[in-house]
Every structure is written in structure tokens, then in C-alpha cells.
Design a protein that fits this description.
Layout (H helix, E strand, L loop, with lengths): L1 H25 L14 H12 L7 E2 L2 E2 L8 H17 L2 H20 L6 H14 L2 H41 L12 E2 L2 E2 L6 H32 L4 H20 L3 H17 L20 H11 L10 H9 L9 H25 L7 H9 L5 H9 L4 H16 L4 H25 L5 H9 L1 H12 L2 E2 L2 E2 L1 H16 L4 E3 L4 E4 L2 H16 L4 H8 L10 E6 L8 E5 L5 E6 L8 H23 L2 H14 L4 H21 L7 H8 L8 H17 L5
Parallel strand pairs: 8-9, 9-11
Antiparallel strand pairs: 1-2, 3-4, 5-6, 7-8, 10-11
Helix pairs in contact: 3-9, 4-5, 4-9, 5-8, 5-9, 6-7, 6-10, 11-12, 14-16, 15-16, 20-22, 20-24, 21-22, 22-24, 24-25, 25-26
Length: 692
Amino acid sequence: MKKIFTFILIIGLIFAVQGQRRQFFNDKESFDEFRIKPVNFEDIIHGLQNINNNKNCSNCTEGLENFNFNFSDLNLMLSNERLSRIARDRKLRRWMEYQKNNRIKPEIEDALNKKFNNYNDAKNALFKATEDRSFNAYAFEPRNKYSKANRTTKDLKNKHLKELKSLKFREHEIKRGNINNSLYAEIRVNNIPLKNIKNVSYLENIRKGIIGRFEPNAAKAHINEYMVKELYSFDSADFTKMFNAATALKHQYHNGLDQWKQIAYMQALVYQLRYINSPMKIPNTLPIFDYRMLDGKYIEEYAKKNREGDISVFDEKYYHKLLYESGFFSGVPYPHLAEARAKARLEKLRKEKLNSLLNSSSIGASTTVDFFLETFNIRNQNIIQWLNDNYESKTFIDLAREARDYIEGAGLHPTFVYNKFLKETLVKGAIIARFLNDAGITNKEHKRFLYDNDKIRIDLQRFASQNIINRAISKEAKSFINEVIKVKIKNPNAIIDFEDRIINGLTGKALCAYEKLLSSGVSNFHNMITDLFVEFGTNNIGGRNLTFKMSKKLPNDTGGKTRVDSDGNYYILVNENLIKTLSSIEVASILVHEMSHAFLGKHYNDSNASFSKLYERYINNTGIQNYSHDIMKDQFINRMATAIKNYDKTIFSSFKDYKILASRGVFKLSSTQKQNLINVINKARQNDKNCL
């Protein structure tokens, strides 16, 4: 009967633990920073056996197993907690004191590498250490939260101010009688071009709507700005305050537990300190282990209480602040007058603040750009684009300084200053800006690159002028132009073949091998290299581009990779990390292999329907599964080997060796073929004297 009872008790406990484990797995937080391993039921059963058979327990006090700190997962921490509950039910006080002084205290000393006079000193040190190690991880959460919010509200605030500044300028135009010829005709407010706003009443309705959105966002932007400043400027005094307060909360929490729960809490803190590098998240099913005092929310609240900046005048709470200052809440004789004064003052303060913000805001990229447009009555959209794109450049800054000196210092007329000193630079800038717009270049980095690099920009402008279809740059030419810019930014020495639309961004040994392959292709007209360039030449079907690039992201066992983008343009990537260990002819074979991929892919995807049907019939007739690799095996392998032989005819004495090297990566090799390839590679590394 006793055995049956014990068995039922074990089964019941297993089901209870399983239920608890399901709760852990249903708790989303438990997966964030914590790997939970399956419960070891043998340990639980062993613990119960010790409880019921204390004669066989070698690690027991008062017949109950002591805390186990040799754990590697959450389960043993939970097991320790269960032991504390059993000890409480059995009132094992000597067992409790033993855990404090002989199990918990030594573990704290070992973890902190410090001896303590008593258990309380060790406990105090543990509280501080667990909070100290949590700060940076928990500070990330509010810092990230308010940094993102600050960027969002700041951008929206600037957008609103630009719209309000535009409306203010348009209002002045309308009142001066300029109804149909707005300086900023295409600037949009509420998605309405300024040229379509032709009376003050309509303008005022639009302005009210924008102010209604501006004010609450400006209030949030104010708070976010000062929260970011506070969160990123904590000093040692702030740390000390937070740590002391958090530690005090931890003491308060600990002291509110009964003595049995206290030791369960302490062993959980030891676990956290010794075995978790970042703050772990304890499942909510055991709130006793909720040791986190200095967490993200605590740090955020501390920053809220200690930040500077008070509240914005646009904050709805500011009205209550003015009411309080007026004595409205302290029993003044005429509260309605106090309320009226508060409203009037609020309106005055908000108007003053908004005007101040508008005076420092711009319609263009800067107030200096606005000065140019208004002073010289500039209407050309390409000049305006150039000014906005270059407002931070040295060219523009110098130009603006000279213009102000001539007008404000020398008293010269703006028209004379424009024609004599500004026109040539601005017209040149307008031509560049128009090209950028026509080519669809919107990326700021790409724009800056072309503004600062005349040679490549002139080459691209010439290329664009040769690829006009229906009075616009062709889609394929735009794609090529943008790819050239990307490659040139990363590799200023990249070689661009505008005629064949081939971008060579290779470097080092790969560039050397490419150039030698190209020269061998020219002198051996019918080999693979020449055919590739014919395929991608100016008359190629579909107008696709080909780009050679170095890559550090390819796997270590991959020498090269051919990729195609959504527009059908081809990219041959060469493994920058791998080629350092290869001979130059091995690099050449990689290039030939990837060129063959591009050749076949281009020929197949871009050919007309008749050719596609013939190609499809060829695939069906030969039973080819992998059209690119298997076709190379079928008819391209000799041409690939010929291209490699033309690279250097002196490395191997037999054409068979060139063919073996060409077979690398084309089809699955037998054991004999693999050994032959290894022999050829070793021979190549001994004999190859190219591109050293």
C-alpha cells in the first residue's frame, strides 16, 4: 500500500510539473533570453526518494536534500525552490540555516571572488551585484524607444513647420497680388501645390488644420528630445541613485517574504549572477523569483522624473500650469477672469514660439537657400534642385557668402550680382540636377558622388544622351547608370565599358586575370570571352547589363556566383577571401565558369520565341535537368577549356589538363576525376607565374 501511495504521489507531481512547464512555454517572455531544457523527472523522483528514505541521503540536512548549485538550466533552480517549500512544511530550521551559511553564502563568495563575515553581508553584496550587472542591458530598451520616437516626432515637426512657413510666404504673395506666379509653385502643403492656393480664406483653413496637428506633435517632440538627453547623459551620481534605490527595493521585497521564500529568492539570484550573462526573464508563474528592480521601466521612470525641459508651450498641460499660476485653483475672487487671462497668455506664448520656430525654419533645404530664391527671384526648378542638394557644400557656402557681401556690404543690385557672379555656377548646377532627375537618381549619397566627381558624371551624361527613347533615358540605361554609381562609390578604380554595358569592379588578382582573359579573347576571336562580350554588347537583345564585383559574403567553398536582378541584369560575384589562396589560372577558370553561366542565362532568357522553342527542344532531346551546368558539360566544356588555355598556354602541356580545370564546378566528379583535378591544381600553383 505504501509503494502504491508513493507511486501515485510521484505521478501527481509529474503532472503538476508538466502543467507548470507548459505555462513556461506559453509565456512569451521565457523565450527572449532563456533556453528552457526539459524537466529531468529522474531528479525529481530521486529527490522524493531521499525525502522518504533519508538513510540513503548523503547530501542531506535533517533528512532533506540540500540546495544544488551545480545546475546548468532552470530546472534545478525550480527544484531548489521546491525543497524550500518542503522544509517550510516540515519546519526544518536547521536545514534553512545550513542553506544560508553553507550553500548560498559560499556560492556568493565564489561568484564575487570575495569573502564575507556573515550571510547578511553576502546577501547585501549579491543584491548590489545583480542590479549592477543589469543596467546596460535594461537601459537599451528606453534609450531605443525614445531615440526612435524622437526621430519620428522631430521629422514630423519639421514637416509641419516647413508647411506653415510655405503658407506664410504664399499669404504674403497673395496679399501683394501675386496670385498665379508663386515662387514656390510646386511646393506642396497638405499635398496641395502652393500655386493652387489662390485666396487667404482657403489658405487659413489649411493652416488651421496643420496647426491642429503640429501642436500635439510638438509637445511630444519636446518630451522625446529631453528624454533622449537624459537617458544618454547619466553620470555616476545618477547611477548611484538608481542602484541605491533599486537595492533598497530589493531589500524591501526580500524582507516582505517569509524566511523560507527568502532563501528560495536568494538561490535564484545566485543562479542569475553566476550563470546568465545578460539579465534573464523569469517566468511569471513563479513571482517569487522576480528579482528585477532596476529594469527598463524603472530607468525610464527615473529619466522622466529627472529630465530637464519641463513641458512645451504647445502641451495641453501648459494651460493648467498657467491656470495654477493665475491663482484659479486657490480661490481668487474672479476665477473666470483668471481663466481668461490664462487663455490669453497661452495664445500669446504659443504665437510667439511658433513665429520664432518659423523664423529659423526654411521652405528649401536651408534659410540660405530661401535667401537665394527670394532675393534673386529664382524660378528654374533645376537650379532650385541644385541649391537644395548642395546647401552644405563648400561651393554653395562660398557662393552664398559672396552674394551677401555684394548685396548687403557693397550695395550692388541683386540682378547685377546674379548675372555677374552667380549665373554661370547655377546654370552648370541646373544641368547636373536635370540629369539626376532624368536618370531617376534620388539617393543622397549617389547625388553627392556625381556632384563631386565631374569625370564619371560627364561620362554618364554622354551615355544617357546616347540612350534616349521617346525623349527620355531608357529604363535599361537608367539601371546601368545607377549600377555604375554604386560600383564606383565602393571601388573608384572600377573600369566601365559604356559601349558593351559591362562594369568591371574587380580588384587585385581577379582584375589581373580578367584583363588577361580579355586580351586573350580579342586575339582568339571565336572563344568564350569574345562571345560573352558580343552577347552583352550595345545591340544585345533586351539591353541587359553585366557587372563584375568582388564579394566577401560568398561561402568559403564558392569561388564565384552569377546572379540576375529583377530587371534581368547579370552580376558575376568573385569570392574576395578565397582567390588569395588560388593561382591566377584558377581565378581565370572561375571567371570563365561564371561568364558561361551569364552567357547561357542571357541567351536563353532574352532570345526571341523562335530561339526559345529551339532551345527548349534541345533541352528535351538531350534530357538535360540543370540547363546551365549540364549544357556546359554537353557542348561548352571544350570552349571553356580553350578560353583557359588561351589565358596561358605554358602552364599545362596537355589540353586534357585545361579541360580538367574547366570541369571544376560544372558537373559531379568521380573519385578519379577529383584526384585528377587535385593534381592539375597543384601543377597550376607550381607553374603559374601570372598576376603575382
